[in-house]
From TrEMBL:
Name of this chain's protein: Sulfotransferase family protein
Pfam families per record: Sulfotransfer_4
InterPro entries associated with the record: P-loop_NTPase, Sulfotransfer_4
Superkingdom, taxonomy of origin: Bacteria
Gene3D superfamilies hit by this protein: P-loop containing nucleotide triphosphate hydrolases
Residues spanning the signal sequence: none
Length: 197
């Protein structure tokens, strides 16, 4: 019989090693979902209900829409743990530009504002939005030690802090690193595959 696990929500913004976190959690035995690509133009009205429903079906969550609903998930799942993946702002925005280019999506417009679904030309705004999110997350969990792990995977953090936080043994194999230095071309290929699904 499968051991019950508390929910784990990855609530760092996209391109903060969320795919690496997903691989790591899967290797630890979690059922992981995300990112959940919703290109519905009415996403602002639907994403919260979608997230609530999806949260009942998996153990762990990462990438969009989870950074937008961390307060609601904290209320809904009081025993859950939260992981804020972070990285240096300059490296983060460079990764955004390489991966997304000029592509705009309803989800990024929801995060960054109308007309700002592409990072190109919106670099300072993207960084400021990410920094506000990180500050809000830290403030929300400030008086509850053990609920939040801030994890800089790009900066070298790996199994030790993650496994200590989750209370699980450290695997013997190397921590997974996904999408390392993905190029703009790689980003276009991923987006093309997404559109033909």
């Amino acid at each position: 019989m499968r051991r019950r696990r508390d929910k784990v929500f990855g609530i760092g913004f996209h391109k903060t090693a969320t795919s690496s976190l997903k691989r790591a959690l899967r290797q630890l035995g979690y059922r992981v979902t995300g990112p959940n690509h919703n290109h519905d133009q009415d996403i602002a009205w639907t994403f919260l209900d979608h997230a609530r429903a999806l949260s009942t079906r998996y153990d762990a969550f990462q990438d969009n829409p989870w950074p937008l609903v961390f307060r609601e998930m904290d209320d809904m799942w009081p025993e859950a743990k939260f992981i804020l993946t972070v990285r240096d702002p300059e490296g983060w925005i460079a990764s955004q530009l390489r991966y997304f280019g000029e592509e705009s999506t309803p989800m990024r417009e929801l995060i960054y504002g109308p007309g700002r679904g592409s990072p190109l030309g919106n670099e300072a705004h993207y960084i400021a939005t990410m920094q506000r999110h990180e500050a809000a997350v830290r403030a929300h969990f400030a008086d509850r030690p053990g609920k939040l792990l801030v994890l800089d995977i790009v900066g070298g953090a790996g199994w030790d802090p993650l496994c200590a936080f989750l209370g699980v043994p450290v695997p013997r194999h190397t921590f997974p690193h996904a999408n390392k230095a993905a190029s703009r071309g790689d980003g276009w290929l991923v987006r093309l595959k997404r559109k033909v699904r």
